[in-house]
Structure formats: structure tokens, C-alpha cells
Amino acid sequence: SDFPRIIFLDIDGVLLPHSYLISGKNISLYEDFKKNRDLSKIGHQLTFDPACMSNLRQIIEKTDCSIVMISTWRYSFNNEELQDILLAKGFEPNWFHSDPCDRRLTAKKYNDVGLWLGDHSDEDHPDVDTMFDYLIIDDDDVFQSERFKTRHIMPDYGIGLTKAHVDSVLAIWD
């Protein structure tokens, strides 16, 4: 592709599937979260599923894409804090787009994706969907509009990002 490849990435249900959240050392953190609903107290300590992280790494290394975060973790951490957490969990600094997160935090993630894309359009590409080669990896089914549904990779919340998802991304971006 002649256009930059972007992945709009979620965390919960993608890198932190429910099956991993309720196991090992995550379980006590999750129980704490259910009581106080404050991710800022436990986000640094939660561990991501190593298999899901490996699958993400494969996607990034094979496609040379950049990440823009669309996770609800954006509500609990500013850009720098979120990047620091993700780096500590195995992300690489060069994985992030130079503008790694839309800060407007609308009630709907598809609005956030649309706003981010709109902010990065230019005169030569008034239709921003022709300026970026982007995919959305999110376990939520809110991306079913005509605009987004063919760009949406939707892992199962309980399982997370699998090898089959890697294959889907690579097939799309072949």
C-alpha cells in the first residue's frame, strides 16, 4: 500500500481476554477492580496474555503498521501514562503512531476513530478513508457500519487476539 497502515487497537478482550483476566495474579486485581471500578489503581499491575501479545507483534512486524489506541483505558490514563504501561507490557516504542490516541473520548469508539481519521486528512485526500490503510482490532461489535465493517477484526472477548486474526490481517494487507 502507498498509504500508512494503522491499527486502531483495543486492550480488553484483545490483549487481555477475559479468560486471562480471571486467572493467575490478574484475578485478585480484577476482583479489586469490580469493587471500586478504578482501572488507574490496577492497570500497571495487570498482565496481558503472552499469546495475544505475540500475535500482535507478528502483525506489526509483518505489516509495518502503527498503533492508535481506542481502548477505554484512555479514560483512566493520559497518553504518556498509557504508552508507559504498554511499553512495560511488551510494546515497542516504534509501534505507536506519532499521534497514538484520540483524547476527545466520545461515548462511541467509532466516533473516536472517525475524528482521528478526520484530523489526519489533507487537501490531497479529502476522503480520509483513501489516505490511510487502516484496520480496527476490537472485541466490541460497534464497528458494523458500512464504513467500518470490512476493516474490523473482532476477537472473542474471552479468547483475545489469535493466530487466525493474524492470518486475517495478513490476508487483507497482502
Explain this structure.
The chain contains 6 helices and 5 strands; from the N terminus they run βαααβαβαββα. It has helices spanning 18-21, 26-36, 50-63, 79-88, 109-119, 163-172; strands spanning 5-9, 66-69, 96-101, 133-137, 152-153. It has a 5-stranded parallel sheet with strand order 3-2-1-4-5. Strand 2 (66-69), helix 4 and strand 3 form a beta-alpha-beta unit. Helix 3 (50-63) runs parallel beside helix 6. The chain starts with a strand and ends with a helix.
Total strand segments: 5
Uncertain ranges: none
**Cα shape:** globular
Radius of gyration: 16 Å
Largest sheet: 5 strands, parallel
The number of helical segments is 6
* H and E string: EHHHEHEHEEH
List the helices and strands and how they pair.
Blueprint: E1 5-9, H1 18-21, H2 26-36, H3 50-63, E2 66-69, H4 79-88, E3 96-101, H5 109-119, E4 133-137, E5 152-153, H6 163-172
Parallel strand pairs: 1-2, 1-4, 2-3, 4-5
In short:
The protein has 174 residues and is α/β, with parallel strands linked by helices. 34% of the residues lie in helices and 13% in strands.
What key attributes describe this structure?
174 residues, alpha/beta, 5 strands, globular
